[in-house]
Amino acid sequence: MSVQSTLSSVIGPAPAGSAVDGGAEYLSRNPADLDDVVARVRLGGAEALPEAAAQAQRAQREWAQVPAPVRGRVVAGLGRLVEANKESLARLVTREIGKPYGEALGEVQEIIDTCDFFLGEGRRLYGQTVPSEMPDKQLFTFRVPVGVAVVITAGNFPVAVPSWYLVPALLCGNAVVWKPAEYAAGAARALAELAWRAGVPRGVLNLVYADGEATSAGLETALAAGTVQKVGFTGSSAVGARVGELCGRHLQSPCLELGGKNPMVVAPDADLDLAVQGALFSGWGTAGQRCTSLGNLIVHRDVHAEFVGRLDAALRAATLGDPTGDVLYGPLLDRKFAEGFEAVLDTIAEHHTPLGSDHVGRITEAAPRAGFAGDPATGLYYHPVLLDGMRPDDHVFREETFGPVVGVTTYGTLDEAIELGNAPGYGLSAAVYTTDPATAFRFRQGTSAGMVSVNNSTSGAEAHLPFGGNGRSGNGSRQSGIWVLDQFTRWQSLNWDFSGALQKAQMDVGTVEPELDYRLPPELGGPA
């Protein structure tokens, strides 16, 4: 029998008491077996986040004094602890959000890779020595922590994406208030426990469970109180816009990692079998619930029929079902996402041709899926949909669908394909399948996406590359690699004058005057 947890916020050095418990209880259920309650979560009220931020502010001052290489060793310890608990953490992720176990293992590995990378950054938080324009004066630059970071994450990557924030933020000397998704509360607590046991003080990493309304109210209060200096948010574009607006009122620039409507262009010279593999993984892996999931297939009209036929066959042959087995995807994350996906399916119109399965909608005894692994009646299982005949004014073309549906449209010229890819206004990830280098480079130049793949899927981030999007996909901030350091540090300059006199920049500067009227003589090539 699976173990059920009872979880509360952890604020400061000890678990939070009733002062920050809002009284509401959330049941985090296994979406593959809805009778299996993974955790009973006591949600905090609007005062929970401000209290956590105040505690974090007090703890951050001491944490910032820990030498960065030592903080790097704490990050290394977290990586080793995650590695030692890799299978257990992956099984919890699978149980709580329904992600296939193989993908869950990959997600946990991403935490390990992130820790491995940032271990070294503890010794490379470099500043610079800058030459001065005046004698007997030295100029320096330093990276300093921002202070307290509030991190709000979605649950589709319940441990990997949070690590993109937590690891660099902690390494740089910040304290963190982490508000995970309620439906991934168990996985969040497991990762936090590993961080605390790696040597992160509890007051430096605080875990807050709250619903959206309480989180919004609490964040506004904490920003107004001046106890939060950075906000990191991963979630929908609509909520991200509200977070950005709130931060703007307090002159803050948040790190926003939002949704995507990620295009894949299939050129006439593409390796179609390879393109089918990429579309299958990025379009329906994790049931289409990644921010980098394939959204729109844009296929050259000369290969459209052949490509769609091959992809339809591959999708029909794919095994769906019990996420503990070898399946393309399992259930949707949570009931609210199932309801949202059903609303998307309601937009299917007469000009669309649904492919990929014999039915559309929830997989049931009356609408079975051939080769389904397990019992579909236990969970939130839905048929895959390949929607041919998509038009630019369709909902499925314009909006993130966050479910196992991908639309297909055609193009004639590369410029047309690029325009179609950019049209929804997102800019997270994009892919092109081609054997022509010119096509690849022209596509990269034209796409609005922050991440571009050639002959690879729209999904799949490596821990040392910048991750993030533009437009409706984000505000240009980047996570992962050295680029995320600019989110969790601020540049500070120091000028040190040891001349013994007041030297004024731009005024007390020595000059050398050139002889501007000099011209080369004839013997040196000048005019006769």
From TrEMBL:
<dbReference type="Pfam" id="PF00171">
    <property type="entry name" value="Aldedh"/>
</dbReference>
<comment type="similarity">
    <text>Belongs to the aldehyde dehydrogenase family.</text>
</comment>
<keyword id="KW-0520">NAD</keyword>
<keyword id="KW-0560">Oxidoreductase</keyword>
<comment type="subunit">
    <text>Homotetramer.</text>
</comment>
<feature type="active site">
    <location>
        <position position="257"/>
    </location>
</feature>
<dbReference type="InterPro" id="IPR044638">
    <property type="entry name" value="ALDH7A1-like"/>
</dbReference>
<dbReference type="InterPro" id="IPR015590">
    <property type="entry name" value="Aldehyde_DH_dom"/>
</dbReference>
<dbReference type="InterPro" id="IPR029510">
    <property type="entry name" value="Ald_DH_CS_GLU"/>
</dbReference>
<dbReference type="InterPro" id="IPR016162">
    <property type="entry name" value="Ald_DH_N"/>
</dbReference>
<feature type="domain" description="Aldehyde dehydrogenase">
    <location>
        <begin position="26"/>
        <end position="493"/>
    </location>
</feature>
<dbReference type="InterPro" id="IPR016161">
    <property type="entry name" value="Ald_DH/histidinol_DH"/>
</dbReference>
<dbReference type="InterPro" id="IPR016163">
    <property type="entry name" value="Ald_DH_C"/>
</dbReference>
<protein>
    <recommendedName>
        <fullName>aldehyde dehydrogenase (NAD(+))</fullName>
        <ecNumber>1.2.1.3</ecNumber>
    </recommendedName>
</protein>
